[in-house]
Amino acid sequence: MRTAIALTAALLLALPLTAAAQDAGAALEGVAKALGAPGLKSLEYSGSGVQFQAGQSPAPGQSWPRFNAKSYSRAVNYETASLRDEVIRTQGENPPRGGGVQPVRGEQRQVFLLSGEHAWNLVADAPVPAPIAMIERQMQLWTTPHGVVKAAMANNATVQGRVIAFALPGRITVKAVLTDQNLIERVEAVVPNPVLGDMAVEVTYADYKDFGVVKFPTRVRQSAGGFPTLDLTVSDVKPNATVDVQAPDTVRQATGVYGRVATQMVADGVWYLTGGSHHSVVIEMKDHLIVVESPLNDERALAVLAEARSLAPGKPVRYVVNSHHHFDHSGGLRAFAAEGITVITQEINRPYFEKTLAAPATLQPDHMAKSGRKPVVEGVRDRRVLTDGARSVEIHHIAGSTHDDGLLMVYLPKEKLLSEADAFTPPPANTPPAMPPSPFTVNLSDNIKRLGLNVDRLLPLHGRIVPLADLHTAAGHGH
Fold first, then answer.
1. CB environment 137-164: b (16+ within 10 A), e (fewer)
2. Contact of 57 with 98, CB cutoff 8 Å
3. How many other β-carbons are positioned within 10 Å of the β-carbon of residue 400?
4. For 182-204, how does the pLDDT look when each residue is reduced to its tens digit (9 = 90+)?
5. CA 286, CA 417: separation in Å to the nearest integer?
6. Does this model's pTM top 0.85?
7. First to last CA, the chain
8. Torsion of CA 465, 470, 474, 477, to 10 degrees
9. How far apart are CA 298 and CA 246, in angstroms?
10. Taking 90 as the threshold, does the pLDDT of residue 1 lie above it?
11. How many angstroms separate the CA atoms of 299 and 195, rounded?
12. How far apart are CA 329 and CA 421, in angstroms?
């Protein structure tokens, strides 16, 4: 008797859940039908507008830099969870302000790809693994109007009124708002970000039109971290277009992309750490170490940190000097701060990092989130000298740079070495200098002369070691 009563109670409790699931399923089917999603396996849409480079603002709290998207096309395959974005962009702001590979001379082609669990870029038609971008591109795929409803159906979405909510556990949370016509009007997503922790993304869709068997918006606006990233006018949509995006073997076989560290001693107690797209410098003092730059993400930061500690066993890393606040150059700071290492940055960035280093990272708890530590950030205005009596490390503000208002460089007067980021990235040997010179490069050359720094070699945080003469030549200043 008790068993029968318990079974009846369990069935009664399950009824609301079953009904809710049925209601959500019916609601999602209605949305799919309104959009033309049933039977839709792939989609390609194209248009033009403006694009903004997330994480590359000229100063914290300012908008991301703007570029003209002369042409923009996105191809998605929902069955294979793949995506291909191709953008032809031109310079949007003159003079250039902020990062994002500025200045753009003529037209610049960007190709970003995703296939399942693999993300990569095409650089001069060569595939370059980009695992750091994988979750963000998965978000782009599943927040397209038709992607939303397909992902919602596959991930036990809830539907309350005009709001659809679901999650890809450990990766993305999504909330979509419907119009009265059952079309996707707005998507609010949260994705993990190495700098911001949980980063909010919003996409709005407007002015739907019929394109064959589907309805698709002709105006797409997107923001990330509270600032615009895209404003697109869609001119063409091709439902069920052939979209065959497959990761090449070099991408599939790439592992530990950001963990590879190659070390070169450039002076006694000074090492140049490369092995990827972003470099660091380790400086040994009497009783501690200083690391210049912790870029990209936890994986890179922890690899750099392990290498630094192996170079001078027993000496703790006391400081990490941050060149500037752009995402790719500050994405590893959370890991350093989690180890109790003091972050030194330009004063304009200090309040920003005090906030971001303490920001929650709940989707993918990182080294900082797991540590429970309170970050320590110190600001530099014009100049700061770190010394142990034998070695001096000078930290200088690169004044007047339009790349970043809070750009720092590190100078070792005894060794005549200078480390900087983005102001000058040496091209491959025997490459003619860009004409006209980049304003960032001209500004760096001017600052070195203004400060009277006696530099022999540059240790750029991109590129390769070069003599100072290469910088002055690139700036159009001769030797």
1. bbbbbbbbbbbbbbbbbeeebebeeeeb
2. yes
3. 12
4. 999 999 999 999 999 999 999 99
5. 19
6. yes
7. 97
8. 140
9. 27
10. no
11. 13
12. 8
